[in-house]
Amino acid sequence: MNDTNQRPDPDALLEKVQRAEARRRRGRLKIFFGASAGVGKTFGMLLAAHERRTEGLDVVAGYVETHKRAETEQLLQGLEILPPRLVPYRDTQLREFDLDAALKRHPALILVDELAHTNAPGSRHPKRWQDVEELLDAGIDVYTAINVQHIESLNDVISQITGIPVWETVPDAVLEEATEIELIDLPPDELLQRLKEGKVYLPQQAERAAENFFRKGNLIALRELALRRTADRVDAQMRDYRDDHAIQDVWQVKERMLVCIGPGANAENLVRAAYRLAQLLKAEWIVVYIETAKLQRLSREQRDAILRTLKLAEELGAETVTLSGHRLSNEVISYARTRNATRIVLGKPSLSGWKRWVFGSLVDTIVRQTSDIDIHVVGKDSKFMSQTGANPYFSRSRLYLGLASEEPGPLFKLREGYLWAVAATVICTAIAWLMLDHFDLANLIMVYLLGVVIVAARYGHGPSVLSSFLSVLLFDFFFVPPRFSFAVSDTQYLITFAVMLLVALVISNMTASTHHQARIAGHRERRIASLYAMSRELAATRGEGNVVRIAVKHVTEVFEAQAVVLLPDETGRITYPKDEGAAQSCHGSDLSVAQWVYDHGHMAGQGTDTLPGGEMVYLPLKASSGMIGVLALLPLNPARIALPEQQRLLETFTGQIALALERVKLAMEAQNIQMKMETEQLRNSLLSAISHDLRTPLAAIVGASSSLVRDGNRLASEARQELGLAIYDEALRMSGLANNLLDMARLEAGAVVLNRQWQPLEEVVGGALAGLTSRMANHPVTIKLPHDLPLVEIDSMLIERVFSNLLENAVKYTPPGTAIEISAASNQNELVVTVADQGEGIPFGEEKRVFEKFHRVVSEGNQGGAGLGLSICRAIVEAHGGRIWANNLPSGGAAFHFALPLTEAPFIENEEAVQS
Amino acid sequence: MNNTATIIVIEDETQIRRFLRTTLTSENYKVFEAETGKRGLIEATTRKPDLIILDLGLPDMDGVEVVRELRTWCSVPIVILSARSQESDKISALDAGADDYLVKPFGVGELLARIRVALRHVSSAANGEEDGVFSVDELKVDMIHRKITISGDEVHLTPIEYRLLTVLVKHAGKVLTHRLLLNEVWGPNYVERAHYLRIYMGILRHKLEKDPARPRFLLTEIGVGYRLATV
Question: Does A457 touch chain B (CB under 8 A)?
Fold first, then answer.
C-alpha cells in the first residue's frame, strides 16, 4: 500500500477537527447512563464528582435528586450545593434547578441530575437537557444522569416492552454530543434485591414500583437496550479512531436518505425507524411531506399531527421539507433526484388486496420508476397502536386516523357549495328538459357533465361528488323511460348510469384538484412575490430606520403578525426602538427574552423550546458577521407560523432582513472610517499649514528682535527701523492667521450665532476697506453699488470678514497696481456681490476647490496664509443661507461672487412720525 | 506737547503692561499699574488719574463691572483693551460708559491716538471752550447757527439727520454705540432698531462724504457703532 492511499479523507478530517473545536469551546458533558432507576447513577456521579474535587476542580452540585437514599445523601456532604429555585405550582412549591444562579456561579464542573426532567411551567426552557445545553455553551462542564427509557429514539420500543409510556424524552443528539458516557450497570437480580431492601425507593413506593415497572422481564430488556446503546457508541468511537488512523478500506459516498411521510398513523413510527436506520448508515436524512390536493383537505387536527411528526424528525436531526405537488410519486422521485438521495424510506401501503391493485400504491409506483435508489419499506405496528390506545399520548395519535375531521371555519362555505351543487343539477335538469324533444339522451348526459365540471371548479371536491350522484339520479328519474320513476325499463341504462357516474366523478376529481393546485401555486407565488418585493425594497433603502420599517411592514403582511425589530445598542443590550410608532407596536415583547435570543442565536417564544409560554415568537437576525438583532412576532394565528414551510419562509425573511441591516451597518461604518480618514487628513494639512505659517513669522520676529536687543545701540537708525518693521509685519501676519483659525474653529464648532441686523451693504464694504487701508495701498479699489440696493439682514461682523478675506485674497494673488472692483446687484430673491481682480485668474478646474480648507492654488508659493480665508468665506456665507462661487472673467482676472438671500425689509416710519 | 497726564493701566498680562509702561512713560505720561480689577479700583481712588486703560479679561472680576463701578463716582475717560472673542463684552463696556476701545493686537500709533482723543475730549468739556463750531478738513458744523458746510457749500439736513450729526459732534472722536445713538436721537423706544440708525447714517454720508463707501468723517466701527473723525 502506498502513502497516498493511506491518507485520511480530508473532508472527514476537517469535520472531525471542527467538531473537536466546538467541543473544546463548549463545556464537556459526561452522562451516567443506566437501564433503570436504582442502578446507582446518582451515586456513581457523586463519587466521580468527589474525585474531581480532590483533584482541585471547582465542583458544584447544581441539582441532585437523592430520593432520600441514605448512601447517596451521605455522598452529597462536602459538596457545594446550589440552592434550588422554588417555583410555586398549584398548592405546592416545586424545587427546580436554578440555571441563572448556576451560570452566575460559573463553576468548572456542575452536577445536574435527571437529564430528562421537565421543568416547571414558566421556566426558561421546558426541558432540563436544554438547561444543560446552555451550561455547556457557557463553557461549564456538566455531569448528569439518564435512564435508557428517556432516549427519544428508543421511546417507542420501550413503551412497547414495558407497556408504560414515557413522556420525558431527551433527543439522541444530546447523547451523541456527550464527551463521555459511563454505563452504570447492575444485574436485574441485584437491582430487585436492592429494591426489596428499600435502597431504591421508600418501602411503600417500592411495592408499587415492583408491580408495574420493576418486573424482571422489563429489567432484562432495558438492560439489553442500555448495553446495546452504549455498545453503539463504543462502536462509533472505534470508527472515529479508525478514521483518525486512516484505517479505511473503502471510500464511502455519503448516504442521503429521503423519508416520505403521509398523514397516516404510521408517520411517527416511520420517522423513528428512519432515524435508527440513518444512525446505522451514518446517513443524512430528509423527511419530506408532500401536500397534494387531497392532503390539503385534511382536517386541522390531522395537519397538526403532521406538523408534530415533522418537529419530531427535526429533533432527531432530520432536515424537513414540505413540498406540494399533484402526484405523490413524481414529487418524491424528482425531489430525491435533486437532493441526490441514495435511499427512500416509505411506510407500508395502507391499501391492500384489490384496491391496491386498482389504484396502485406509492411504493409500487416508486419501485417501478426508480432503479438506482434503494427503497426501504417500514412496516406498521398495529399491536402497538391498539395496546397503547388508552393513554393520552397515543390518543393524540388516533387523530391521524382522521376520526375527528370537522373544521368549524369554512363550514358555512361548504354548505353553500352543496346547495349550489343541488341547484346546478336542477338547472341542468331544466335545460335537459328543454332539449329533450330535439336531442338524444346521450347529449343530455353532456349537459349534466358540464354542470359537474362547473360545480367542481367552483366548490371543489365534495359538492361535485354530490352533483355527480344527483345528476345520475335526476337523469334516471326525468329522462330514462319509464320517466318520473327510478325504475329502468332497459337494463343497458344501468351501464349508462355507471359510466356517467364514473365519468362525472373522475371529471369532478380532476377539476377540483386542478383548481386546488392553482390555489397552491397562487399561494406560493404570492409568498415568493412578497419575498421579492421585500428584498427589492430593502436593496433600495438606506438607513437603519428605513430597513426596519420595510422589514416590519412586509413581515406583518406576509405572516399576519405584529412584528417588531429589536436592535442592540453599542454595548450589545437589546433596547426598544426609539421611534415612537415602532415602540408601540412592540407592546408586550419581552426584552429579556429578546436578549437571550440575541446572545444565543436561537429562536425562542411560542412554539419553540425556549420560553414557549409567551405569546410572541423571537427570531434571531443572523448575518455573516454575527448577530444583528431580533425579530419579535406576535402572530394572529400561531399554528400558521409553526408550519415548516412558513418557518422556512420566515427564516428566509429574517435572513434577508439581517443582510439588509448588516449592509446598512457596514455602510455606516465605512462612512465613519471615511470621515475619520478625512478628519485625519485635515488634521495633517492643518498641522503642516500651521507649522509653516507660524514658524516663518516667528523665525523673523525672533531673529529681528534678538538683533535689536543685542546690537540695538550699534545699529544705524535705518537698520533699527527696518528690523522693527519686520517684527511688526510678521506679528500682524501671525495675528491674521490666528484670527482665521479662531474664526474657522468657531464656525466649525457651530458656536457662531448670527447677530443678524438690517444693513446697507455700503457700510460693511466701507468697514472692510477701512481695516485694510495699509495693505490695499497698491491696489486701487472701485466700488460700484447701485443706489437702490436693498438692506440685507446679515451679521455685519462676519460679512465684513468675507469682504476682508476676499480683498486680501485678491491682493495676495494679483500683481501690485492692478485694480479690484467691488460690485453688487439684486433681484427679487438675492443680493449678489462680486469682488473681481485683474490677476491671472484661477487655474482651470480649481474654481470649486479654492473654497476647500487648506487649499492653496500655488502650494509652494510665498503668499502665506493657511489657505483658510476662502473656506471661512464659504462657511460664513452658507451660515447666512447664501452661496459662494468663483469664476474667471473673459477680460482676465478672477471674480468671486457671493449671494445673500433677500427677505422683506423692515418697515421704517417716516421722519414726521418719529418727530411727533 | 507737554504730557503730564496720569494713566492707570489695569491689565493682568505682564508683557502687555511692560509694553504699555515703556511706551507711555516715553511719551511722558505718568503710569501706575494694577494687575487685578480690585487693585485697579483702589489705584483709581488714590491716584486721581486722567485716564484709565482697562483690560476686559481680568482674573478677579469682569471688566464691564469695573467700568460700572468707576462710573458710579467718576467720569475719568476709560479706554478698553479687548481680544477678538470679547465682542459683546466690549459693547457692554462701551454702553456702561467706557469711552473707547482697542482690539489686541494694536500698535503704538493707534494707542496714543486714542489716548489723545480721550484726553482732549475731557479738557475741551472741562474748559468750556466750546465755540459751537466743529471742523475737520472741509467739513464745518456750526452748532449755534445750525449751519453745515462742505468746502463752504451749505448742506441741508432734516431734523433727525441734524440731531444725529450733533450727537456725533458732541462726542467727536469717541466711539458711540448703536444703542447710545438710537437713544439720543430717536429716544429710548428705538434702541433695538439699529437699521434706523444705519439708514440715516447712509443718508448723512451721501450728503457729507465724497465717497460714501469710504467715509472720511463718519467712520464705522463694525458691529459696535460710529465715530466722528477729529483729524
Answer: no
Strand partners, A127: A118
DSSP A869-904: HHHHHHHHHHHTT-EEEEEE-TTSSEEEEEEEE--P
Let me know the angle formed at the C-alpha of A676 by A671 and A679, rounded to the nearest 5 degrees.
125
Can you tell me which residue has the cell 492653496?
A856
Question: Among residues A544, A580, A563, A578, which one has the least CA distance to residue A658?
Answer: A544
- Where does A432-499 show beta strands of DSSP type E? none
Please answer whether residues A45 and A57 qualify as being in contact, where contact means their C-beta atoms are separated by less than 8 angstroms.
no
Give the pLDDT band (50/70/90) at residue A663: confident
How many CB atoms are closer than 10 A to CB A68? 9
**Cα A147 vs. chain centroid, distance in angstroms?**
37
Quick one: average pLDDT of A187-196? 83
Check pLDDT > 60 for residue A269: yes
CB proximity A274 to B under 8 Å = no
Q: With bands split at pLDDT 50, 70 and 90, how would you rate the model's confidence at A907?
A: confident
Q: What is the largest CA-CA distance in chain A?
A: 155
Distance, CA of A653 to CA of A531 (rounded, Å)? 7
The answer for residues whose C-beta is within 8 angstroms of residue A290's C-beta and 6 or more apart is A260, A322, A323, A324, A325, A328, A331, A332
Q: How buried is B177 (Cβ within 10 angstroms: 0-12 exposed, 13-18 middle, 19+ buried)? A: buried
| Per-residue model confidence (pLDDT) at position A860 | 42
CA-CA-CA-CA torsion sign (A505, A511, A514, A516): negative
pLDDT < 70 regions, chain B: 1-3, 85, 122-131
Query: What is the tens place of the pLDDT at every residue in A389-442?
Result: 333 333 333 322 223 333 333 445 567 788 888 998 999 999 988 888 888 888
Please tell me the predicted confidence (pLDDT) of residue A856: 63
Q: How far is B73 from chain A (nearest CA, A)?
A: 34
Instruction: Tell which A residues from 716 to 745 touch B, by Cβ distance under 8 Å.
Output: 728, 731-732, 735, 739, 742
The answer to whether A605 and A595 are in contact (CB under 8 A) is no
DSSP secondary structure letter of residue A729: H
CA distances, A244 to each of A1, A8, A25, A177, B199 (Å): 18, 7, 21, 18, 98
Q: Are A163 and A133 in contact (CB under 8 A)?
A: no
Q: Distance from A750 to chain B by nearest Cα, in Å? A: 15
Q: Do B222 and A797 touch (CB under 8 A)?
A: yes
Q: Say whether pLDDT at A582 is over 70.
A: no
Numbered residues of chain B with Cβ closer than 8 Å to any chain A Cβ: 84-85, 87, 105, 107, 158-160, 186, 190, 193-196, 198-199, 201-202, 205, 211-215, 219-223
Average pLDDT, chain A: 79
Give, to the nearest 10 degrees, the angle between helix A441-459 and helix A411-435: 160
Other C-beta atoms lying within 10 Å of the C-beta of residue A790: 14
Residues, chain A? 916
Looking at residue A350, its pLDDT comes to 64
Cα A278 to Cα A266: distance, rounded to the nearest angstrom:
18
**Residues near B216 by beta carbon (within 8 Å), at least 6 away in sequence:** B137, B209, B210, B229
Dump pLDDT digits (tens) for A687-703: 776 777 778 888 889 98
3-class secondary-structure state, position A427: helix
pLDDT digits (tens, 9 = 90+) for A545-557: 888 888 888 888 7
Yes or no, beta carbons of A770 and B220 under 8 Å apart = yes
Share of chain A above pLDDT 70, in %: 83
**Helix A492-539, helix A544-559: angle, nearest 10:** 170
Closest CA to B88 of B107, B105, B101: B101
